[in-house]
Fold this sequence. Notes:
Blueprint: H1 3-9, H2 15-18, H3 22-29, E1 31-32, E2 35-36, H4 41-45, E3 60-62, H5 84-96, E4 106-108, E5 120-124, H6 133-144, E6 148-152, H7 156-170, E7 177-178, H8 203-206, E8 218-223, E9 229-235, H9 239-244, H10 253-272
Parallel strand pairs: 3-4, 3-5, 5-6, 6-9
Antiparallel strand pairs: 1-2, 7-8, 8-9
Amino acid sequence: MSRAGLRRALARGAAAGILLSCAGWLVAQRGYRDILLPPESPWSVHEPPGSGRPSEFVLARMAYTDRYADQMLDMRPWQIDTPAAERHFLQGLQRLSVIDARPNETYVHPNDPEVFDYPFLYVVEAGHWDLTASEVERIREYLLRGGFIMFDDFHGSEEWEHFMNGIRQIFPDLPVEDLDADNEVFHVLFDMEHREQIPGAQMLYSQRPYERDGVVPHWRGIRDADGRLMVLINHNMDLGDAWEHADWPEYPERFTAMSYRLAINYIIYAMTH
């Protein structure tokens, strides 16, 4: 998306503060919340070969209005771990599947007309969203017209309640269900009977795989009237960090491998249902 397009995707008067220069992206990628991490320079400032080319699949991250809209932040919640997370993952998607994936990410706001061009949306830190009425209406329309949203990287009971405030606005009457290991979405390509909590990089410092009071991982979903999963929720997990640190020796390989396989299953499910 162009810089002008990204400005349109960012809500209201905070837009100018949300757009960062390439140098700003680099600085942001060096920190995980308040903890400094190794620099991610090539992932943050250099477009991979083939960026922007026509392809079968484009990984689109959804921009949304957050509950800090009146504050100037270095990075909005929806921007966490981008673009390093997507660019690592898209390499794995090309390697582990036959999907023709564009090697770079894009960003889209629910109110952008082109949101319907992307059958799969990736949303992070939705425990901090604060949707406008127009965003609520457009997300509902997007999902009921066949779209699929994967939620990731939000933790604990407080963030869950903020997330559910948005979900109740979008679908007041649809239940959120826990997905068992035998659910189709966990077997469309890789068999994922064994699943475990995928932690963020904070685990290396906190020595625990969870954040806040999010001790138990949950895989949850919302179905449409035909039984199609249109929302996949990874709660108390951080697949994006597992992607982002795929080549970081300190981060356990088994979590990155699991996060790649889960996300590839979700994408194939979304593209075939």
